[in-house]
Each structure stands twice: as structure tokens, then as C-alpha cells.
Specification:
eight-stranded mixed β-sheet, 3 helices, about 290 residues, alpha+beta, disordered N terminus
Length: about 290
């Protein structure tokens, strides 16, 4: 898919990688890197930016949340890490298993008026589905590295980096993609209006990949015709390579967003986990 950014400078053209339709996912090793620095620390851009493996900026629809044009990206192709791999978390968050959640999303009652693409070049095959207490979709996972600059998310590591996010912390600062698990939802359109279905900034989501569950919040918006994106921290929690240039997976990720839920302040991940586990258990019971 892509990682949206809200700067108008991201209009350069590169190659688009071949799109992959939803199917069996292949686990990729987590990205290498040092421990994240303190929030809000400016980072000097690396003199060598990561290669744009099959990526390009493509103008997308007007974001209803921000009121500016958000460019999008093609799917980056995973390449071997140039540093030592980082060890993925030993277990998923919470007591509700991935198997329990996936057992409840086998059938889709479509609530979107059309389907989404996961990449600029791919066909529109992904519907948004409705369930008791939640909406869900199954797609790829592209890395959103926008927000407050950090070691792995900054203008030196990500050529399409934007220092802003659709939703902000309680102190008015952008979210930190490297430390806060969040997901990206499409901007409202005639295809689907997230807000009309109880999905807003701070809504709690359970993101499932293979046998892992990562609780997150809705933290950013993307193009109105693309779906399947989450923050650097979300990818790490799922054991997915998290670099903005070579991270993500082409399929096999399930996003379950609990209707009318909200974490306040949005940056309180512990509260998101507590609320997410309770709502996930209710979701399993009710569906």
C-alpha cells in the first residue's frame, strides 16, 4: 500500500512494486535498530537515505481530517537488513488470542459501498466489514513513520516523512510512530465514512498477524481509496519488519476496530491495551 504524508513535497516518481493480492502472509524478520530515543528529539538526517524499492508518490484524495492532499506510496520490497536483527516481542499483548479473534472474522458483512486497494497498482479487493461492536478488514501492512521525529522515523530514514499526524497527543504534539502503536484509516468518502460507524481518532483496534495480537489506536488518516497501514511500533509489536523503506508485509493482517471506543489521552498505550483486551473479549463473546 503506502505510507501517507501530508507534505506537498512528496510528488517525485519512482517505480511501483508489483501489488500482491490478499493471501497467505509470510513472516519477515523484525527490523534492526537501536533503542528509541526520548520523544521529541530532533535527529540529524542520515547522509544516505534508504533506497526506494518500488515506491513512488502518487497524489491521492483530499483528506477530510486534514484538508490537504495526501500522497501515497507503492509497496516497498523487503530486503535483508543491513544491521543485526532486533528480537521481536516474546508474546502478544493481552489474554485474548489471535485464534479467538480470527475465528470471528471469517465471514464479511460488507458495510463499505465499494472496495479498497492495498497499493496504487493493485485492484480494489478489500471490503470493510461490520460485526457486533466492531468493524474489520483484512489487508497488507505498510509502515506509517510520520509524526514526531525519532531514530528510525525522520526525514533522513523516510523520504516521504511528514512531521504531522491527523490526530495529536494531549499536549498538541504529533504522535510518535516509533513508540506508539496506531493504525491508519482511509479518509471519509462515499465509499466509507469511518466516523459514521464509530471509528474516530483514539478508537481502539486489535491488529492480528499470525499468532500475535497488537492493541493500537486510530492515529492517522490516509488516501480515501487505499487501506492497510500502521505505525512503526505496531509492526514491531507484531514481529513485522518495521523500517519505512523495507518494512511491512503484503497480506495476512486483520484490523479490528471497536466501534465508539476512545482512549483519552490518545498516547496512553497502557489504557489502549486495557480497553482493547476488554473489548476483544466482548467481541469474541458477542460474535
Amino acid at each position: 500500500m503506502r505510507v501517507p504524508t501530508l507534505t506537498l513535497a512528496a510528488a517525485g516518481v519512482a517505480l511501483i512494486a508489483p501489488a500482491t493480492l490478499p493471501g497467505a502472509a509470510v513472516a519477515l524478520p523484525p527490523e534492526a535498530g537501536a533503542a528509541a530515543p526520548g520523544e521529541g528529539v530532533a535527529v540529524t538526517p542520515s547522509p544516505v537515505a534508504p533506497a526506494l524499492f518500488g515506491r513512488r508518490d502518487v497524489p491521492a484524495a483530499m483528506s477530510a481530517e486534514r484538508g490537504v492532499v495526501a500522497p501515497s506510496r507503492g509497496k516497498p520490497v523487503a530486503v535483508p537488513s543491513r544491521a543485526h536483527p532486533r528480537t521481536a516481542p516474546a508474546r502478544a499483548e493481552g489474554a485474548v488470542s489471535a485464534a479467538e479473534l480470527l475465528a470471528k472474522v471469517g465471514a464479511c458483512a460488507e458495510i463499505s459501498a465499494g472496495r479498497y486497494r492495498t497499493d496504487e497498482a493493485s485492484p480494489a479487493t478489500v471490503p470493510v466489514c461490520g460485526a457486533r461492536g466492531a468493524v474489520f478488514w483484512k489487508a497488507d501492512l505498510d509502515i506509517d513513520c510520520d509524526g514526531r521525529p525519532s531514530v528510525h522515523c525522520n526525514s533522513g530514514t523516510d523520504p516521504l516523512y511528514s512531521p504531522s499526524t491527523a490526530y495529536e497527543q494531549s499536549d498538541g504534539q504529533p504522535l510518535n510512530a516509533e513508540t506508539l502503536p496506531y493504525i491508519v484509516v482511509p479518509a471519509a468518502s462515499s465509499r466509507w465514512d469511518p466516523g459514521a460507524h464509530g471509528v474516530r481518532g483514539g478508537s481502539v483496534a486489535a491488529v492480528v498477524y499470525q499468532d500475535r495480537v497488537q492493541y493500537a489506536v486510530v492515529g492517522d488518516t490516509g488516501p480515501s481509496d487505499l487501506i492497510g497501514e500502521a505505525s512503526y511500533a505496531t509492526a514491531q509489536g507484531l514481529g513485522i519488519r518495521s523500517g519505512p523503506g523495507d518494512g511491512g508485509v503484503p497480506s495476512g493482517v486483520t484490523y479490528i476496530v471497536f466501534r465508539d471506543s476512545e482512549v483519552d489521552p490518545i498516547e496512553d498505550h497502557e489504557a489502549a491495551v486495557t480497553m482493547g483486551e476488554r473489548l476483544a473479549r466482548q467481541f469474541v463473546t458477542d460474535n
